[in-house]
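Record type: monomer structure entry
Structure origin: computed from sequence
Chain ID: A
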Amino acid sequence: MTFLLSIRVTNFLRMTRRNSAVRAEAIRRARQVKQERDAAARRRELAVESALADFFEQTALAEALRTQAEAKVARILDDMREAIMEPQAKTRAALRTLAELRETRTSISALTGLSAAEVRAALDDAAVRTPVASERAVVGGV
């Protein structure tokens, strides 16, 4: 019986040694798989960080370009408004002259191609901005 027990103990020790080797190999493989998973997670996080950096960088660039463009547009519009002031004043004066020559608004509309509403608005605006002939004569005569 002791002999059988001794064989069993010897076999158990061999199995334990084998199990220890198997366990060590299992631990080694588990660590390797975990390291690969951790490396993949690090690569993914770096890719997320890079994509977010690109997003924020390009958003800031787009906003800066939009701001520059809006400033340019504002300057162009200001220049345009200033540049058309004289031609618009002369246009209103020409319409006013037609009205002073006893042309009706309808005939001014037909002659100029403007709508009746546009003629009315221009003449009303011209009346506000330009003194009528009789007022000019009084102002000039004073």
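Annotation 1: Residues 132-142 have pLDDT under 50 and may be disordered.
Annotation 2: The helical segments are 2-100, 105-112, 116-129, 133-141.
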